What we know:
Number of helices: 10
Order of helices and strands: EEHEEHHHHHHHHHE
Distance between the termini: 22 Å
Largest sheet: 3 strands, antiparallel
Number of strands: 5
Radius of gyration: 21 Å
Shape: elongated
Strand content: 5-15%
Amino acid sequence: MTRPDRPLTDGRIATWRHPWPVRLTHWVNVVCLVLLLMTGLQILRAHPHLYWGLASTFDDPWLSFPDIPGWMTLPSWRDLAIGRNWHFFLAWIFVINGLIYLAYALISGRIRRLMEPSAEELRHIPESIVEHARLHFPEGEAARSYNVIQKLTYLVVLFLLLPLMLGTGLAMSPGMNAVLPELLQLFGGRQSARTLHFLAAMGLVAFTVVHVLLVFLSGPLNNLRAMVTGWYVIRTEPGETPDDPA
Length: 246
């Protein structure tokens, strides 16, 4: 549910951006992603090599990694069994939380309103890339909605990377293999599924790093306030800063 704008001092406006379901699922995602990455590295640490196909060849990995330090893994000591158990448990929390967000976004029209790029926006992708490269962030009315690069990125994450993570994770489960063996075949074998799972995870890590970087470059207090309270401050005149206390 949208709320009317709130006028602030110096001509600034607080606009309602994030309802509570979005904020709650966002922060649950933050915790889950960090812990999933650490438990995933614990699993990778047990055999830091990736392959394509049905089985590992050991002598000819597609990609190998140096020893992963304990401070990056959960638990910090080598324990594949605990790492797997925690990873699977967190993965289901992450999936359920994602389904809650997706259901809300579809029912409320958030995806259509904020994430669906128009034909006009798609024609201006090159200009938007240049603006991003120059670290020029939208101001005024343009700051009310996501730009075309943001929209496309969120759609890729929501409808490509996350489903790929879920599908490859399920494909590696022996229980799922017994129920739906076609899933493992779809991804080209267990080792291919493991490699694709890792690549999807790195895609999410890359998205998260860029996302956090842009949050800090475009106004950390304003962005964090919006994800805590729901209100995002728009600068209405040049020279104003949304990070000023409201």
